[in-house]
Design goal:
With about 180 residues, the protein is α+β, with helices and mostly antiparallel strands. It is built from three helices and twelve strands, in the order ββαβββββαβββββα. The strands form four sheets. The chain has a six-stranded mixed beta sheet with strand order 3-6-7-8-9-10. The mean pLDDT is about 90. This is Uma2 family endonuclease.
């Protein structure tokens, strides 16, 4: 197996199939418009925020929806592939053989901003998820104890952006109520 960072300069843009050769070394390998993105494993603070958020969402999610981690969202042309911190999708996909979710299957994607690479979640993934039509994208920002809720995607980005603090409630992808003070504890 060739290490992806040591392979010869590609003759074409990175595609999903190229990720099959990446090492299982704890790093996250993603692609945006054919460019490889490599990020290190998250620190404990990031993990703790994600853990608390996932537990709260799972406790309120209906049985037909999955609140999952480590499942990527793949653009149809295979030149963009993101692995959100959390993704919510229909449970019937658990019995499928898809290697990654098509963007239309993701009801909600959530990214917890890491201090080491905030622009990936705040700019790059924001544009990427909107471009492929992910209906709602949450950017969780522990440093300011808020969640940006982005909705109504379009080719130029999300049309709705709301910043939430304290108690947060909504109906997409299911009715929920979250105490952000618990998540950011």
């Amino acid at each position: 197996m060739t290490h992806p960072l040591l392979r010869p300069q590609p003759l074409r843009a990175w595609q999903f199939e190229d990720l099959l050769d990446t090492p299982d070394d704890g790093y996250r390998y993603e692609i945006f418009d054919g460019t490889l993105l490599v990020t290190p494993p998250p620190p404990m603070a990031h993990f703790a925020t994600l853990y608390r958020l996932r537990r709260l969402l799972e406790s309120q999610a209906p049985a037909h929806l999955v609140v999952g981690e480590n499942l990527g969202v793949l653009r149809r042309d295979a030149n963009s592939y993101f692995i959100p911190d959390l993704v919510i999708f229909d449970a019937d996909l658990l019995s499928s053989s898809v290697a990654a979710l098509p963007p239309t299957a993701a009801k909600l994607v959530v990214e917890v901003v890491s201090p080491s690479n905030p622009s990936t979640d705040l700019v790059l993934k924001r544009a990427g998820y909107a471009m492929v039509g992910v209906p709602e994208y949450w950017i969780v920002e522990p440093s300011v104890r808020e969640v940006q809720v982005l909705a109504q995607p379009g080719p130029k980005g999300y049309l709705i952006q709301e910043k939430r603090t304290g108690l947060m409630s909504g109906t997409v992808p299911f009715p929920y109520e979250l105490d952000l003070d618990v998540i950011f504890a």
